[in-house]
Amino acid sequence: MDHIRNVVIIGSGCAGHTAALYTARANLKPLILEGHEPGGQLSLTTLVENFPGFPEGIQGPELIENMRKQAGRFGAQYQLGHVDRVDLSERPFVLHVGRETIHTRTLIIASGASARWLGLPSEQALIGHGVSSCATCDGFFFSGKEIAVVGGGDSAMEEALFLTRFATKVTLIHRREEFRASKIMLDRARHNEKIQFLTSTVVEDVYDPAKAEVTGLKLRNTSTKKVWDFPASAMFLGIGHIPNARMFEGQLDTDADGYLVTKNNVLTRVPGVYACGDVQDRRYRQAITAAGTGCMAALEAERFLEE
Ligand code: NAP
Description:
The chain is an alpha/beta fold and 307 residues long. It is built from seven helices and 19 strands.
């Protein structure tokens, strides 16, 4: 067996970089595998105003780049590449990354969760320019504007309610008549006079990629088939997240939606394997909470190696 690593970290979002910083400062020379979406969800946002320490806010990609530099200064090694397969039944653990095989004594999983998108080309072109999957990150930019929220679950209700702080009107667009949201969340949204509902309605297009801003949506009623243009300055998606935990199926515990199940925030059922950030957190999903669990995972890995 070639070189055995002390720590390998899967994912390079807030959680991964924080775990990298702590394990690098503990002289464990962590290897960070950056994955398909280097930088994670922060790299998709614009101004971050709720990460403490930046009184004027900081651009998401800049914050992530700073974290990377900070960990790099203490010897964290970054490698582009996606983990295809892991074997946690052997020790050291085995990771397959393309043609390479990596062995490690501890593994920190910070592979995040990806927002679910509608998949329209115009939607993808306008991410960060009026299309967002994070109301707490981007809602503030649409003060005094009319906003659309897509989805019929608790996330969509929560986003719609949060956005009423800024918007003059929030329109919740849902593809069915029935809602997946809990009664309490649905009632709250229904009783908010700033929120109007459009049910049995789907988004067919987002205007206007040529202007690099959202000016409206093309909507279709699924029962009447009527198609119309709807004015909006932003579209927020609340149609769920997909935790990036598929590769651990059968080896670690996941809940019904695929999130890794942890004890004490970061402990998985395999000693020496830790999970942090959005791959195990369906509740808070904030940059600062991801950083917090990244730190916990690093401290646990350190302790495990000492023992
Ligand atoms: P969810 O419950 O799976 O709801 C997703 C919603 O998006 C559904 O209404 C679904 O429509 C819709 N949707 C999915 N794909 C779509 C598409 N391609 N086009 C249009 N609509 C689409 O997801 P979630 O709301 O993120 O909630 C996830 C979990 O977290 C739930 O257990 C929820 O209770 C929990 N959560 C709780 C709170 C809270 O209590 N404060 C807040 C947020 C989340 P259909 O209904 O037609 O499938």
